Amino acid sequence: MFLDRFKDFKNYKTETTPCKVKLSSNENPYDLPQWLKEKVSQEVKKIPLNRYPDPTYRELKEIVATFYGVKPENIVLGNGSDELIHLLITVIGEINQPVMYPVPTFPMYQVSADIIGRPKTEFPLDENFQLSKKSIDRALKEKPAIAFFASPNNPTGNSFDRDLILYTAENNVFTVVDEAYIHFSDKKDFVGEALERENLVVIRTMSKIGLAGIRLGALIAREDIATVIDRIRPPFNITYPTEVIAKTVLTEGKEEINRQIQTIVSERKRVMEEVSKAGNIKVYPSDANFFLIKVPDGNLVHRMLIQEGVLVRNMSHLKGLENCLRVSIGKPEENNQFIKAIKKVVGSI
Ligand SMILES: *Cc1c(COP(=O)(O)O)cnc(C)c1O
């Protein structure tokens, strides 16, 4: 009856098999250091939990804005960037105008479009997982109102061609650049364009740099655009504890976060080189805190890795990603266990 539309709905799936080494969700493998945890709990203790948080999130916005090098007026906060993705798909353009995105990519664009009931214009990446002008031109013919580009892209790990993202914006499409993994990349971000253009915004998240548990994302846009989007976001969408934890960590823990990011980036280089040396595994380039590999039999290798105590994300079921596995970068000892396990598994089949 009321929910018939969702009878066969495929929701966002995550990998939940318990495993000793979890390299399946692109999380930061490091929790906060103990001294910062103490600081956080002191601040959390002071929260009047019977009260609503500041509805404008003025102080948190200032801290997030400083963290990203913009002004508080350019920021809209979200309960994870997933909430911002859903909000944009709800409000940009008309409901019968398509949502455009390349495939394979982050599944939430498709999930949100399906929940709202909006048409989707999916277009293929080329054999190097790069955008091509030809397929963008074909997609633009369907008159999409909004486009999503995750760059670096999840699950492929590569960054997209800047000019083709801008080309989409220049063709009158509201263009969202999802920079969830930008901290691990040395490519130029789109903040400059977001502050200039009326129809290009950037979304960021704290989830991949150590705070997946607090659910905090941010949209960066020109002041006039950010003001309107801030007006239509759900009130009190950031919880009081999230506000307080983020304020503490983003001020006192900034250096720690940057150190962790550097370690993850150098581990990425080391692990990818090690895996490349093993035979029968194709390693794709990555600007993120994970990388993609192609193995002889994705489903089998995924299962056998679990038996070795290592959980990665199986991407084999996705079109264009046959036999591909996505591997998050963990702590050095976890990475070593992965390297050992993948060599053993692939060597045995
Ligand atoms: C993980 C991820 C997100 C989700 O971020 P949350 O802030 O945890 O909701 C958004 N976009 C991409 C591309 C991601 O990989």
From TrEMBL:
N6-(pyridoxal phosphate)lysine: residues bearing it: 208
EC number(s) per UniProt? 2.6.1.9
This protein's name = Histidinol-phosphate aminotransferase
**What cofactor is this protein dependent on?**
pyridoxal 5'-phosphate
Domain of life the protein comes from: Bacteria
Pfam families with a match to the protein in the record: Aminotran_1_2
Taxonomic source organism: Persephonella atlantica
Give the family per the record: Belongs to the class-II pyridoxal-phosphate-dependent aminotransferase family. Histidinol-phosphate aminotransferase subfamily.
- Identify the pathway: Amino-acid biosynthesis; L-histidine biosynthesis; L-histidine from 5-phospho-alpha-D-ribose 1-diphosphate: step 7/9
What quaternary arrangement does the UniProt entry report? Homodimer.
Residue stretches making up the Aminotransferase class I/classII large domain: 20-342
Task: Provide the GO MF annotations for this entry.
Answer: histidinol-phosphate transaminase activity
Name the keywords, alphabetized.
Amino-acid biosynthesis, Aminotransferase, Histidine biosynthesis, Pyridoxal phosphate, Transferase
As its record notes, the protein acts as a catalyst of: L-histidinol phosphate + 2-oxoglutarate = 3-(imidazol-4-yl)-2-oxopropyl phosphate + L-glutamate
Top-rank EC class of the record's enzyme? transferase
The answer to keyword Transferase applying to this record is yes
